[in-house]
Amino acid sequence: MTVTTEAAPRTRRPSLKGRWIEDWRPEEPEFWAASGARTARRNLAFSIFSEHIGFSVWTLWSVLVLFLGPAYGIDPAGKFMLTTVPAAIGAVLRIPYTFAVARFGGRNWTIVSASLLLVPAVLAAFLIKPGVSYSTLLVLAAVAGVGGGNFASSMANINAFYPQRLKGWALGINAGGGNVGVAVVQLVGLAVLATAGKGHPGLVAGIYIPFIVLAALGAALFMDNLSQVRNEKRAMRDVCKDGHTWIMSLLYIGTFGSFIGFGFAFGQVLQVQFKADFDTPIKAAYLTFLGPLLGSLIRPVGGWLADRTGGARVTFWNFVAMAVSAGIVLTASREKSLALFVTGFILLFAFSGLGNGSTYKMIPAIFRAKAQLGVANGGDPVAAEHEARRLAGALIGIAGAIGAFGGVLVNIAFRQSFLTSGTGDGAYIAFIAYYAACCLLTWTVYLRTHPRKPAGV
Q1: Which label site among 26, 59, 240, 263 has the fewest CB atoms less than 10 Å from its CB?
Q2: Residues near 73 by Cβ (< 8 Å), separated by ≥ 6?
């Protein structure tokens, strides 16, 4: 997030057009107790709802591909491409969506970003039917990528509403509420399969249309813009020169990239890898929501553990656990053990969610350590603190975008593995190697004692 809240005047000036707030002082206890907390909670509630719907639309095709039976003439590789495309578009959109909050206002952009979700929902509701061309399906999947940007703008907006002491809680609740949308859309798909059957994929998208309208209306009626929020000048450019930016982005690919990538791919993997057990879409749908649900709910626990034992330590052991979990999946794949396979994947979802929280906690700690070092060397404490917040906010935005691109890599790995060998074994080996590399990277930079080690990360 690259937005900041400038110091607000002590007296309230006439408001701008629409629901703009000019006097916003969340760090002052009196202001926060009198009206700030209530206003922030209201904006958080509607932000979560909009972001939740955004995640559901973004991962809509993780469900829709389960409906694409023989009548559509699409092989497994083609289906993996249909989940790769929205993952890629969503990752790319996260950077401009982050800037949009300060440019247009948090409320205004939430209205726009929520309304844009109508496009993929309406198109999917009416155009998916036997006989539709594969190129049309690719376009429909690509349009669903707009839901991926909502996370970035929502986090940037809520970050501006809360005081420093409550940002971790607010952003954790906001992120977790959004991530649950991955599991909910799969439950919606299960409900449609159980009631209407596999011949009605459009119903899954159609169910979301009224909720999208409610999200946009809720933002219009109950959310606010903060006039003090500004995009930090050159923050993105400056933080890109810092080596920690690329290290943390690689780690976030391993955590959030795994979470969103597995969320897109798990149902297809079950159907391809265990055809006899999942010969109908509904059988796969019974299991696909479990991992994303657990991974979403456990995300705040990763932050909580990082607060108490250190983000780098939690992240290191979390990647160890992810490598072991991927090893369980690989073993289960070779032994053709469905129970062990599902267990390994559920563990992967859980640890990827846990790692989402711990890696996000590392980012401000890195720049806080740099600020403290600068102050110890005679720097100005206020300027150092501002610089730490400026760069940490920019890095959160960059890592969020690059991490989301990890979902693309996961789906490409599965597609290539199934094309090459007919199993996902090649992908599982790649995942184990990546998690092992993340372990080594975390230990080398943030845990091993060396002169440039940032303290307290």
Answers
A1: 240
A2: 134
